[in-house]
Structure prediction request, 347 residues.
Amino acid sequence: MLDLIANGHVRVKLKTVIHQTCALVRNILTTEALTFSPSIKHGLPLGFFSAQKGLFLHVVGEGVVYLSNRGRADVNDKENYIDFRMRLLGEEQENKRMAVLSPGEHSFPFKLGLPLGLPSTFLGKHGWVQYYCKIALKESTGIVHKNQHVFIIMNPIDLNLEPSLLMQPFHCEIEDTLGVGCLSAGPVTCTVRLDRGGYVPGESICIFATIENNSKTTIRKSTAILTETIQYSYKNKIVQAETRELASLQKGQIPAGSTDQWKDELLHIPPLPPTNLRGCRLIRIQYDVYFIIYSKGSKKQIKLQLPIMMATYPIRNNDGTLQRKRDSYYPAVLPVFRPWLTSKTLE
Prediction:
């Protein structure tokens, strides 16, 4: 049996039946722990010695973008982050004698140092960043036993190590016109402020806003939406972008000639996969808070976009204690995948 187990060894085990297992073992690693040490098993008939040409390990990390263009040329781009090969058993030259394994269990310890700055594992609709191990055991008879296992890289973003500007409040202001013609048209001024520019999943974004409706048209509603945008690139050009809603808040009508305010309204950030794609030039993830004003009787919208950073580790005080925000509920476990990728994208 040929298999991978995360115990720091390669193991070859000779059993009564020749077979190959392909069970997936998911190892979650952070780039703070810069080593990866799986193990391997192999099974052959009990009571027979087995001559092996070699046991080969191949560790791969790659980013891929793939889009099918319905009859046109497909878009396919790829980049490598790890390409590590190691022979764990057997001689480099083919004319050397074979390695003979007796029945039983054999262990081949090894350790692989991970490069700094690896992009996190990501699985998207049109691309991915994946890390996996390939194992091949070549017998003298020509039979090759193969297996492949995925491991997950989490490259965290620590808000304490990011520019301090992200911890400061910032705002955005816009003035536009609502209404049709000189009878109903008029200016609408909107100012939006967030309590800071960097957050982690489980925290709440504090929103302050002032909407002055100096037009003669009623504003139907105002909405704040937290979005995730995934951009896929090919030859340094964005070929696909998808924006999906993660959370939202809204308030009701604002009559003509009146003012409405958002005072410390809380937009909660749901659990999100810790996806730091720094170092990946093919896929980019961006988080924004959109503040949108909808006029009554018209499809026109007034929209403000406020980009934010989504990190992994929250802000801490000088003594190392957690600086808890109001109404924050830090999840014990963050998801690995994005179930909302199948949901409808925003316009």
The first helix runs from residue 181 to 184. Confidence is low (pLDDT under 50) at residues 1-10, 12-36, 44-49. The longest strand covers residues 50-67. The radius of gyration is 28 Å.
